[in-house]
Amino acid sequence: MSKGARPGLTGRTYVGSAWTAAELLAMKEAQGSTLSVVLPALDEERTVGAIVSTLRRELVDDVPLIDELVVMDSGSTDRTEIVARQAGATVVAARDVAPPYGVVPGKGDVLWKSVLATSGDVVLFVDADLEDVSSSSFVTGMLGPLLTEPTVAYVKAFYDRPLVTDRTIAPSGGGRVTELVARPVLNLYWPELAGIIQPLSGEYGGRRELLESIPFVSGYGVEIGMLIDVVTGYGLDALAQVDLGRRIHRHQTDDALGRMAAQVLQTALRRVDPTWAAAAIECARLVQFHRGPGGFVPTEHDVTVTERPPAASVPSAVRQQARALLAASRWVDRLSGERP
Q1: How far is the C-alpha of 340 from the C-alpha of 327, rounded, in Å?
Q2: What percent of the chain has pLDDT over 90?
């Protein structure tokens, strides 16, 4: 059994603390690999700076493990861009990447554009709303299996996710959409994925060849869609999961979770029966209710999900433009003195 692996779960399951940054750097250099770390962000000025600062200090300055540290901004109206840039990230506006494809709302579109703009052989995604970042182990933990196991091409993180309220911090209770929607659907239609502990976690990544070969769902269905497409196209042995301990994210309202659940379910059902996709576009409306002065009032929400094509199918000129945009942003930062 490989270092850090745990027995008893479907696929490969590891402990994130099994590798040090120095060990991973030696392996990465021996393999001639490069690493891109991407934080998709929308109005995350409160948390993004601490995450970027930690990664910059520990995995760029102290141990040069990360080759590209990128915040892909999806239209923030707060100081996210300024804070991230000052902390040491290269910031790119998602709207400027791949102009012929336009802008589609949602996290998945930002991730897809980050694959186009970055150049690392391995790309890892980290949510920009993590609140308890004290070390860079969430990156080294995910990178470990990709450098030590040649057949692993995709890694998912899992962790305890406390439910934070105004008064208490419950040890569990986060991940409600996972337990109420994603896990039952996966167990029913993709039982080989029943051993995946946190299928909707926002920390994951893989080898570029894999990430460029699969579509990206535009909205909240991106995680479950990617997981299903990986196991369908590459098999369970290509997938690993890593225990990262505990993470605190910002929690959303029940209404917001309902809209998230609708997109997760829609994405999964499209993969159960591809012919359902056309019908889904016609009925992708979610009606929710709030009590008003005269009783309950319905509110209709558009929960349509679209899919971006595999990055490998995007014309080379568009991909070159995306990478040139990232390189230009990096040089602007250096010339302005934001970063050495």
Answers
A1: 14
A2: 71
Does any domain span residue 275? no
pLDDT at 236 (0 to 100)? 93
In a domain, 94, yes or no: yes
First-to-last C-alpha distance (Å) of the chain: 42
Tens-digit pLDDT profile for residues 323-332: 999 999 988 7
Q: Residue 240: how many CA atoms within 13 Å on its side-chain side? A: 31
Range of the domain at 19: 5-249+311-336
Coil vs helix vs strand at 40: strand
175 φ, ψ to 5°?
Answer: 75, 40
How many CB atoms lie under 10 A from the CB of residue 331?
Answer: 10
CATH number of the CATH domain containing 196? 3.90.550.10
Q: Total structural domains in the chain?
A: 1
299 falls within a domain: no
Quickly list DSSP for 105-174.
SSHHHHHHHHHHH---SEEEE--TT-S---SSHHHHHHHHHHHH-TT--EEEEEEE-EEE-SS-EEEEE-
**Within-domain flag for 193:** yes
Q: What is the tens place of the pLDDT at every residue in 134-143?
A: 789 999 999 9
Cβ count within 10 A of residue 279: 12
